[in-house]
Amino acid sequence: MLAHREGLLVRSPERLRDKDTGRLREHDVVITRTDHHGMSRTAIECRDHRRAVGVPQVEAFAKKCEKTGIHRGIIVSASGFTRTARTKAAALNLACMDLAQALTFDWIGAVNLVCQYYELVALDVGIGIQRDGAEPVQPVTVHEADGSFYTGADLRDVIFNQLPSEVRAIEQSQIFEGRLTVAMDGRYVLDATGTRFAARDAAVRYILRVDVAHREIELHRYAGEEGALEIASGEFAFPDARATVALVKSPSGLMGYVISTNAFAHCVQIGDAPLRRLEPNAVP
To answer: Where are the domains of the chain?
Structure first.
């Protein structure tokens, strides 16, 4: 899973290797921050039990953090913490945060989330060439300007970047068929005899499956000694992917996140604002 912010990577869940046993141990959430000072990891443990978190749970989480290279740990509990657990957490440099569901936040109104998931189910490409009467001898290969084979990987981005507005406005899952022409500047075709033909363009026909899901936004408040976090979020599940969209208000400001599995690109649109494509962070 991935969250979008420069120098910040959020994974949930995340498995890190125990430095003593070599085995992988799972954290609910790991936030990796990279800046000019280096790299640091924060782990979040989520406790949604009926009983308040006690000292044993705090000590177990602290030990897991130590063994897996976590620099800071946060325990989130829906049932609170015992007094001794808070004391122990402070001694072990762990933060305790209480989770409560909220009905409304003053910074956000009634919001519904709509998530679209696009999947290419068919793709057909025809390459147009510049010729002086001669016909290429089959079979042919398509090459980049530097001589490497052309894979067509860029066509996927072109398709999604040039989707018609009516596709972006789809509110129910459906199949869409489209066509477009893509310039092939600098690329060329080699035929079976080694004759070179300049590539002119690519005629692309594609079939796209559009899955659409609607969710009411959920509001939660995380309260701790360092202040409160207010989080508005929604989760989506599709046959081949999952996604979470969240807005987080903290004392330092408002931040938006997109967390997903099996998606190569993410775009976000709020109200009538222009569609914005989020570039994924590199894994440190």
So the answer is: 8-110+217-278, 115-213
Give residue-wise pLDDT tens across range 106-125.
777 767 788 889 999 999 99
In the 3-class helix/strand/coil scheme, how is the chain assigned residue by residue? Answer: CCCCCCCEEEECCEEEECCCCCCEEEECEEEEEEECCEEEEEEEEEECCCCCECHHHHHHHHHHHHHCCCCEEEEEECCCECHHHHHHHHHCCEEEEEEEECCCECCECCCEEEEEEEEEEEEEEEEEEECCCCCCCCCCEEECCCCCECCCHHHHHHHHHCCCHHHHCCCCCEEEEEEEEEECCCCEEECCCCCEEEEEEEEEEEEEEEEEEEEECEEEEEEECCEEEEEEEEEEEECCEEEEEEEEEECCEEEEEEEEECCCCEEECCCCCCCEEECCCCCC
CATH 3.40.50.720 correct for 8-110+217-278: no
pLDDT digit string, tens, across residues 11-57: 878 999 999 999 999 998 888 888 777 888 999 998 877 889 999 99
